[in-house]
Specification:
The complex is a heterohexamer of chains A (202), B (316), C (241), D (207), E (451) and F (275). By secondary structure, chain C is mainly alpha-helical. Chain C has twelve helices and no strands. Chain F is built from eleven helices and nine strands. In chain F, the strands form four sheets. Chain F has a two-stranded antiparallel ribbon with strand order 1-5. In chain F, helix 2 packs across helix 3 and helix 2 runs antiparallel to helix 4. Chain F starts with a helix and ends with a strand. The relative contact order of chain F is 0.11. Classes of the chains: A mainly alpha (202), B mainly alpha (316), C mainly alpha (241), D alpha+beta (207), E alpha/beta (451), F alpha+beta (275). The interface between B and C is large, with 38 and 34 residues. Strand 1 of chain B pairs parallel with strand 2 of chain F. The complex binds flavin mononucleotide (3 copies), riboflavin, iron/sulfur cluster (4 copies) and FE2/S2 (inorganic) cluster.
Chain lengths: 202, 316, 241, 207, 451, 275
């Protein structure tokens, strides 16, 4: 049998080589939905980090007790609980952001990234590795969200993190970028670009 | 014996000498009446618009094919059509940067990413136009068409479709037919569109099924709408000559690449385009729906092709 | 009459104007993953539509009867222990996400078993998609949307009943089916196209989806337009009647 | 005989325990945070009340004092086409209990999606004091200009009769200038206000 | 005799006719060459089996090979001479076949070609003689004469012209369309061997017991229509004048145009009660049955813009293309492409020393201008190919599916129904080699079927 | 109040969990799918290129064939012997030493060595070109139109002057090129030892016919096969028997056979790039 990667490998792999968005193409709905500005994207990434970290750690702790046919249920239960917690925290302490993200926070429950990490890593390896994996993957996820959000926010509103970077006097916003078509087009082209770069590197 | 190197190839060894380039040049010829009308009504605005789009479309085609490492494909003239049709579908007032972005998007995202000529699913010009229309809605929405400061009178008026939708002002049929109204520079003259369009159909460059079925569908729906509620709806003639209907039906919906290949498919396509145009004109937030109707039906075209495979000769 | 118009408008909006995939970005995974062949896409579309409707029914019922503040079932049970007043304030909405995901998972399981048992042929053609659906956010999204129209609505008139909930879910599913089928048609066509290597596969699919989304933006406002037209004609009708 | 291990529920003991535990945990979180969330929702509206019922000078004065207004929340239900319709209204009172004005929450279809807004009325419900858009999804750059102060300021001191949107230069007191390129959004806002005022004018006056 | 007008089929193409090169050139007679090369597989079906050995002497008309099965024919020597060692040649259709050379020595006196023509087709014909032969006798004599379809398909004619109780045939159609541009072989036959054609038509219909006897001629050949209908007076032959359109001469389209029946894909004409034969074939049938002459010579039209003096030549089978071309004054300086057959269906070849087989109805030589192929672009999905395809297929899809080797797609679009007429590629503005791609696709489909 | 909420919440969750675990338990039992552990294990070992080099549709197919049909363990050309050993271990059998199969192009004629070349207009595809006669006289030789190039997913093939070159550093031995070649010019050969010999011609005809069409072809004189039994005549064409090559008894005879071949350069070798 192949040996399981170490904590460090897990951490590093999650960022680029196994990037959940550009490489594994998992959990694309929020990637498209919340990337019309950086703030929302980063909040989303934070929420994913929290849920993934908690779920990975908890699953890893109870991995000895899992029955094969029931493990997915346990994962779901764990994930759904943590997502509810994040959601309520946002509603309590970042009310406006919570309103802006709307249903996409609860949709983390069905985000395949988390369940696949529980399955691939947490249910097989120890807490330490699982945590490293969660952080690595979350950083990878955050980088991906940031790349898309940067393009969309700057072109779509002339701003970055809410600060104006392209002066309104000369810049006409490309409104389409913050609307649904812009999300698809930006991600599609960025994905093409990453494919091109990695092919070239080889 | 012969001085030549003998050539071998597969049959047939004759061809009717129609080439892609000739087809495309025929389209450009058919656009001449429309261009003349545009120049007549919009003067240098039209010249500027078409020239900017044409040049940037050609440049984009050259640039992107080069980036792909392919031979330059300017000589097939299809990029020129994209440029001209795009220019004609923009308002006289659209600033230069809008035209340039539209051309680049049209050629880049509308065409080259799919593999260039013949491979694209969506009409490149309409992809470009939709992109800028959604991006710069204030410049290309109805408000954008009006420019009080313009030195050409018609540009300071509201577009007829919009005037009707907003204020219920009945357009003059005479003006709609000949074209001295505001609007996208190529669409205003129904007469010019008809002349060019009929030339296209006679030359078999465009299939007559598409414009015909679009026009008939539009007539049917607008007649129904008018009969149900004459007070609030434009007449059949208004729908037919107003907006971009004829321009779209003859020059845009007929793009062979993005419309179905079989006769039956073309009829279905036309009925679809006509129906969506009327749905959007009657109910949507926009005064006009040609562009969206064409894009939506382009998307369905592969399915239409798939579902209208003709029965082979003798097949039961 | 007004009720029917309401249902129709919810349907049009869910299927076309605010298409689940192209406007709300939910169900992207199957939209990209299962859109390579038209027949597969249609199978997936109908499977989703079916499950989404069942899940919507379940979540509507659970929310209305158990979870929302003052829901009949939970306040009935609570009234054994505390005063009626207090009991009607019991608020279990915090459980909603968990309950929904379980409702979805069990309806998928249930549908799978039912179809396998009674329609083995059907199972062969679309059963393979069922497990995938559990992690399809379109379903959970529909449940959440329904919830947002039940809990925390100012005006009791605006609280959704079952009919509205099912209209949203069913036509949301139909909208998904339309989008994925169109996409599959296009992707079959793209197989014979000369797409740059780095754009092949998912990237070009996303770009096509972007252009489709532009097209679907044309429907913006059709619901208000329809509403205006329909209410007007129904007023005419009422006057007659 | 079946072994205990073969019973489904026994196999699932972990799930059952986790379920109970999580249920309890979540309920506790609800108890802790629920209040705060509710507060957020109410505050979002309540903190707007002063600026919606007071004039600018009054508002500055109030802020300088660091005082706050007394706000009373009521739901008013009116009959319309044989159907009940409820409005959330907020009555602002001085410290002495005298009414300053009312804030009404109303909503309706905009260009793209629902628009939700607040508007403030004077104490006799005869003049609009100001409006505030709570929620809208109009097109950025066009319809979403309804959130700009410049446009909203037109509503100051408009009489509570049917407002009308005009495209070129408002002349009459009941006219509002449309946002160029977004007549529909502009009209939607006015329609929402018009219909709420029509429903509420009498009930508010009578209170 | 009756004449019907304007029958046709739907779709198809309208290539320029180019018949002017050779239509007014009377049939000429080439001297027998000293060496001929007889390909052993000249027909569809099993190859013929050599019945002589190297160094054997044969005389004019002697059998050199036996029929190799039911769907096969014997082969006769067109000259007097000695059998040589077998060789291999690449035929214009790309097949590599065994060829047996026959070489006439110095003392072998060759029969005059003109005399052979006279014996086969000339002189007086008495149509009453037809009555003397029974259906079976006719088939047998056809078989012995080694006749294959001269319209190009080279299907053994005795198989086609044989009464079969399982598939009764009520219509016998003679294919005199010659819809290929340039070629005038059949046209000259109709003008110069009219009697033999009428006799052959009657024999053919008798062989299959058909009541309906039709000769289908395109309306661009008024001379031929005139003379054939004159000679057919007093018989029950109908002349069907058909619209000039490519591929009017294709079997299925001809049946549709004349008797309005549609042959299902993959089925034979006999499934709708029809049999179709080319005029040249039918003349050879007459010569075989009534004059007992084997098929050793045929008329070959050498034409095109790259030929000095286009001619219709009565020539021995097995003569090389080079000899025929030289008989016509050779190639012009700007000749670019040699085609065995017409330009629509014919095969281009590079080696003029290849021998002619029974199915070669003509040689078309195109000059540089006519052979010019415009540069290929991507398909613009214009649908012209769809509007041209007489089989109602979607050629562009077939071509693209073949190019991508997507056999499922190709079969979904019914690739095997294509008979490679070339109407699609003729019309295509993108100049896609549609037919070539379809051929490749069909070969892949067949290979996958075999597996 | 609070205890009630908490217990109601827990209760609701419990009921759900019960229902759900019941359904799942039942489903698990009713629809248990037999997963063959060995197949899984082999799947993990196989490289997952799904290239078809093993003559199965994909890696999984091959894994199943090994377990269920007793297929040999050394068919994976990509994984090579390491992979074969791993599979052998799983299956508990002895791995037969397998040399990697690599493509060799059995036609060396460059454009100027091919006779009867005519100008060809049409689809740039060898398969399509086989339907046009007269492109070149030899109907067995490489057409140089690159179906093999297109078939190779690893960019290992290039064509210059009508002659095909394989870049063995990029080639993984999937055999796609060999399957794509309509003229069967590319043969998959075991790469073993320092030099891999081959007879670089595919023309099956007799001497005269070959001489007519090609200067460097195999004329079928059979001298080589008379000298050494490593060579076997396939009709008029000489072929090397690689099974015998490994255990060559008489290397001198082989050397002599190579020496005596009248077509110089016809029998040649490729230096094993993997040593
Ligand atoms: C080919 C073509 C397609 C068009 N399609 C649309 C469309 O889909 N939607 C639209 O609002 N305007 C479209 N237009 C612009 C309108 O036809 C026209 O200019 C309109 O009266 C301007 O109103 P608007 O700018 O408010 O949309 C199109 C114009 C052309 C030339
Ligand atoms: C992409 C796009 C977005 C639009 N968004 C809005 C909007 O949010 N609100 C609005 O009232 N009109 C919007 N419009 C413009 C309408 O189509 C319509 O032309 C306009 O309401 C007419 O108003 P006007 O007469 O003031 O120009 C939009 C147009 C486009 C093309
Ligand atoms: C596209 C196409 C065109 C044809 N054109 C002719 C033609 O012009 N004349 C002809 O005799 N046969 C033509 N044929 C061959 C006929 O289909 C048929 O095989 C022939 O008439 C049968 O007669 P035979 O067996 O005597 O040759 C054509 C076939 C095809 C596929
Ligand atoms: C009849 C006809 C209409 C055309 N219409 C358009 C058009 O509306 N927009 C466009 O970009 N190209 C048009 N073209 C050019 C060309 O087909 C188009 O750019 C292709 O989509 C490029 O692959 C047209 C071509 C023809 C023959
Ligand atoms: S597809 Fe075949 S049958 Fe149809 S036109 Fe082309 S070659 Fe002829
Ligand atoms: S005629 Fe040519 S360009 Fe037109 S659809 Fe057919 S293959 Fe394509
Ligand atoms: S050259 Fe390419 S196609 Fe051929 S075996 Fe090697 S990797 Fe496979
Ligand atoms: S080796 Fe075969 S496939 Fe490759 S170019 Fe030569 S003939 Fe074509
Ligand atoms: S993240 Fe939405 S379906 Fe996968």
């Amino acid at each position: 049998m192949t040996t399981q990667p170490t904590a460090q490998e897990r951490f590093l792999q999650g960022i680029i080589p196994e990037n959940p968005v550009y490489r594994q193409l998992l959990g694309l709905c929020p990637v498209l939905a919340v990337t019309n500005n950086m703030k929302a994207a980063m909040t989303m990434a934070g929420a994913v980090l929290f849920v993934l970290l908690c779920a990975n750690v908890l699953v890893s702790l109870i991995r000895g007790l899992l029955k094969p046919h029931l493990r997915i249920v346990v994962f779901t239960l764990v994930i759904a609980t943590f997502v509810t917690i994040v959601d309520k925290f946002l509603a309590a302490y970042m009310y406006n952001m919570s309103k802006a993200l709307g249903p996409y926070i609860p949709l983390i429950i069905v985000n395949c990234i988390i369940i696949s990490r529980c399955e691939i890593c947490a249910s097989k390896q120890n807490v330490f590795v699982a945590a490293a994996d969660a952080i690595g993957i979350s950083i990878g996820y955050a980088i991906s969200l940031a790349s898309i959000a940067t393009v969309r926010e700057i072109l779509g509103t002339g701003m970055f993190f809410g600060f104006r970077v392209l002066p309104a006097s000369v810049w006409q916003d490309w409104v389409i970028m913050v609307l649904p078509p812009g999300a698809f087009l930006t991600f599609g082209l960025l994905l093409g670009a990453t494919n091109w770069f990695s092919a070239k590197k080889k | 014996m012969s001085d030549n190197v003998i050539q071998v190839s597969s049959s047939p060894h004759l061809s009717n000498n129609v080439t892609t380039k000739k087809v495309m040049i025929d389209v450009l010829i058919s656009l001449i009446p429309v261009l003349l009308a545009a120049l007549y009504f919009f003067r240098f605005y039209a010249l500027k618009q078409v020239a900017v789009c044409l040049v940037s479309a050609l440049f984009a085609e050259w640039l992107f094919t080069k980036m792909r490492g392919r031979k330059a494909s300017l000589s097939d003239c299809s990029a020129a059509i994209t440029g001209v049709i795009l220019g004609l579908s923009l308002p006289a007032t659209a600033p230069i940067f809008v035209s340039v972005i539209a051309s680049f998007v049209a050629i880049g995202i509308g065409k080259i990413v799919f593999g260039g000529l013949g491979m694209n699913i969506f009409n490149p010009a309409m992809v470009g136009r939709a992109f800028v229309m959604i991006s710069f809605a204030s410049l290309l929405g109805a408000g954008g068409y009006k420019d009080m400061g313009a030195c050409i009178d018609i540009i300071s008026r509201a577009t007829p479709m919009d005037a009707f939708k907003q204020a219920g002002i009945e357009p003059s049929m005479f003006a709609l037919f000949f074209g001295n109204t505001n609007g996208s520079i190529g669409e205003t003259s129904a007469l010019a569109c008809l002349i060019g369009g009929i030339y296209l159909c006679i030359k078999r460059v465009a299939s007559w099924e598409i414009p015909l079925s679009i026009i008939i569908t539009t007539i049917v729906w607008s007649a129904i709408a008018y009969l149900v509620n004459p007070a609030e709806n434009l007449t059949v003639m208004g729908h037919l000559f107003g907006g971009a209907l004829l321009f779209g039906a003859f020059f845009i919906a007929t793009d062979p690449v993005t419309s179905p290949i079989t006769k039956k498919g073309k009829l279905i396509f036309g009925v679809g385009v006509g129906s969506i145009i009327m749905l959007l004109r009657l109910f949507s937030g926009y005064p006009e729906g040609v562009m969206f109707a064409v894009l939506l039906m382009n998307a369905i075209t592969p399915l239409i092709n798939n579902w209208t495979i003709p029965k082979a000769f003798g097949e039961k | 009459m007004n009720y029917i118009i309401d249902i129709v408008l919810i349907a049009v909006s869910a299927a076309l104007i605010n298409n689940f995939v192209l406007y709300y970005f939910v169900g992207i995974c199957p939209f990209i993953g299962v859109s390579r062949k038209v027949d597969m896409a249609i199978g997936m579309g109908f499977a989703v539509t079916f499950v989404i409707t069942i899940a919507a029914f379940l979540s509507w019922a659970i929310t209305t009867f158990v979870l929302m503040p003052g829901a009949p079932l939970s306040s009935f049970i609570a009234s054994f222990f505390v005063s009626k007043e207090m009991a009607s304030q019991i608020d279990l909405t915090i459980l909603s996400y968990i309950v929904y995901i379980f409702a979805i998972a069990s309806s998928v399981q249930f549908v799978e078993m039912y179809v396998r048992k009674f329609f083995p042929d059907l199972y062969k053609s679309f059963g393979v998609f069922l497990p995938l659906i559990t992690t399809n956010c379109a379903i959970l999204f529909a449940c959440l949307t329904i919830m947002s129209h039940i809990v925390g609505v100012d005006n009791p008139e605006d609280v959704w009943d079952l009919g509205r909930a099912l209209s949203l879910a069913f036509f949301g599913g139909i909208g998904f089916t339309i989008a994925i089928t169109i996409m599959a048609g296009i992707r079959e066509e793209l197989d014979t196209c000369d797409i740059p290597k780095s754009l092949q596969g998912v990237a070009i699919t996303l770009i096509v989806a972007g252009i489709m989304a532009m097209g679907f933006m044309g429907f913006t406002g059709v619901d208000s337009g329809l509403k205006k037209a329909l209410t007007k004609s129904s007023i005419v009708e009422q006057n007659k009647g | 005989m079946k072994k205990i291990k073969d019973f489904y529920l026994v196999q699932a003991w972990l799930i059952l325990i986790v379920a109970i535990f999580f249920g309890a945990a979540l309920a506790s979180i609800q108890i802790v945070l629920g209040q705060k969330i509710e507060q957020n929702k109410v505050n979002e509206i309540k903190q707007r009340v002063p600026e919606l019922v007071l004039s600018t000078t009054e508002l500055e004065k109030l802020n300088a004092q660091g005082a706050s207004l007394d706000v009373e929340f009521t739901t008013i239900t009116v009959k319309k086409n044989n159907k009940a319709k409820s409005y959330n209204t907020y009555k602002a009172k001085n410290a002495d209990g005298s009414t300053i004005g009312y804030v009404v929450k109303a909503g309706g279809q905009g260009y793209a999606d629902k628009i939700e807004l607040l508007f403030g009325l004077d104490k006799n419900a005869e003049k609009i004091n100001a409006i505030y858009i709570l929620d809208q999804k109009e097109t950025p750059g066009l319809g979403n200009k309804i959130v700009t102060d410049k446009w909203q300021n037109q509503f100051k001191n408009k009489p509570t009769e049917a407002l009308e949107v005009v495209k070129t230069g408002a002349k009459n007191t009941n006219e509002i200038d449309a946002i160029t390129g977004a007549t529909i959004s502009s009209r939607s806002v006015c329609n929402i206000i018009n219909s709420a005022i029509k429903d509420l004018k009498e009930p508010l006056k009578n209170r | 005799m009756t004449i019907t007008k304007k029958g046709t089929f739907s779709h198809g193409a309208h290539p320029k006719e180019f018949k002017e090169y050779s239509e007014n050139a009377p049939i000429e007679f080439i001297n027998s060459p000293s060496k001929v090369f007889l390909a052993l597989s000249q027909n569809i079906g099993a190859p013929s089996v050599l019945s002589v050995k190297a160094k054997d002497k044969v005389n004019f008309g002697d059998k050199v090979a036996d029929s190799g099965g039911f769907v096969s024919v014997p082969l006769h020597s067109p000259i007097k001479g000695e059998i040589k060692k077998q060789e291999k040649f690449t035929m214009p259709n790309g097949r590599r076949v065994d060829v047996v050379p026959v070489e006439g020595g110095k003392d072998d006196v060759q029969k005059d070609t003109k005399e052979i023509w006279n014996e086969m087709f000339g002189g007086e014909w008495d149509f009453k003689e037809v009555e003397k032969y029974s259906s079976e006798e006719i088939s047998k004599l056809i078989n012995e004469a080694g006749i294959v379809g001269l319209g190009g398909a080279t299907f053994p004619t005795h198989v086609k012209l044989m009464a079969n109780p399982k598939t009764p045939i009520d219509s016998f159609i003679v294919n005199a369309c010659e819809c290929e541009p340039f070629l005038t072989t059949d046209y000259r036959m109709m003008l110069e061997a009219t009697d033999a054609i009428i006799a052959g038509t009657l024999l053919g219909s008798k062989a299959v017991n058909a009541k309906n006897i039709i000769i289908g001629i395109e309306d661009n050949k008024p001379e031929a229509i005139k003379i054939v209908s004159e000679k057919a007076k007093g018989t029950n032959i109908q002349i069907a004048v058909l619209k000039t359109k490519y591929p009017q001469g294709s079997e299925k389209q001809l049946i549709k145009a004349t008797i309005n029946r549609e042959v299902e894909p993959g089925a034979l004409p006999s499934s709708v009660g029809a049999a179709v034969s080319n005029v040249g074939t039918i003349a050879a049938v007459a010569a075989a049955v009534i004059r007992k002459k084997p098929l050793t010579h045929r008329v070959i039209c050498v034409t095109g813009s790259g030929i000095e003096k286009p001619k219709n030549i009565f020539a021995p089978i097995g003569i090389t293309f080079r000899e025929l071309i030289e008989f016509c004054g050779g190639l012009k300086k700007d000749a670019k492409k040699l085609i065995s057959g017409g330009p629509m269906m014919g095969f281009a070849f590079g080696n003029p020393d290849t021998p002619v087989i029974k199915g070669v109805s003509g040689i078309t030589v195109l000059n540089t201008r006519d052979a010019q192929k415009e540069t290929e672009t991507n398909c613009i999905r214009c649908g012209r190919c769809v509007d041209a395809c007489p089989m109602f297929l979607v050629p562009t899809k077939l071509a693209l599916a073949s190019r991508k080797k997507d056999l499922k797609l190709a079969e979904k679009y019914k690739i095997m129904s294509c008979f490679e007429c070339g109407s699609c590629a003729f019309e295509c503005p993108a100049n896609l080699p549609i037919v070539q791609l379809i051929r490749a696709g069909k070969s892949l489909v067949m290979a996958s079927k075999k597996k | 109040m609070e205890p009630i909420t908490i217990s109601l919440a827990s209760g609701t969750m419990l009921i759900m969990a019960v229902i759900f675990s019941y359904i799942l338990g039942w489903a698990n039992k009713t629809f248990a799918v037999e997963v063959n552990e060995k197949v899984e294990a082999i799947n993990n070992v196989l490289p997952g290129a799904n290239c078809g080099g093993c003559s199965y549709v994909g890696c999984n197919d091959y894994a199943e064939a090994i377990v269920l049909k007793g297929e040999d363990v050394n068919k994976c050309t990509v994984g090579g012997s390491g992979c074969a050993n791993a599979i052998a271990e799983i299956m508990g059998v002895e791995a037969v030493e397998s040399a990697p199969l690599r493509p060799v192009v059995l036609c060396l004629a460059k454009n100027d060595e091919k006779k009867g070349m005519n100008e060809y207009k049409g689809e740039t595809s060898c398969l399509a070109a086989t339907f046009v006669s007269g492109i070149q006289d030899c109907v067995y030789g490489c057409l140089g139109l690159g179906d093999c190039v297109a078939a190779c997913d690893y960019d290992a093939i290039s064509i210059k002057d009508g002659s095909v070159t394989i870049d063995y550093s990029a080639c993984i031995g999937c055999g796609a090129c060999s399957r794509a070649c309509p003229r069967s010019v590319i043969s998959m050969v075991p790469f073993k030892g320092e030099k891999i010999y081959a007879v670089f011609c595919s023309n099956k005809e007799k001497a005269k016919a070959v001489k007519n069409v090609c200067d460097v072809g195999c004329i079928g004189c059979a001298i080589c096969s008379k000298k050494s039994d490593i060579f076997e005549m396939d009709g008029n064409l000489s072929r090397i028997n690689y099974d015998k090559f490994d255990a060559m008894e008489n290397p001198e005879a082989f050397a002599e056979a190579v020496e005596k071949c009248p077509s110089k350069g016809l029998i040649g070798y490729i230096k094993n790039p993997y040593l």
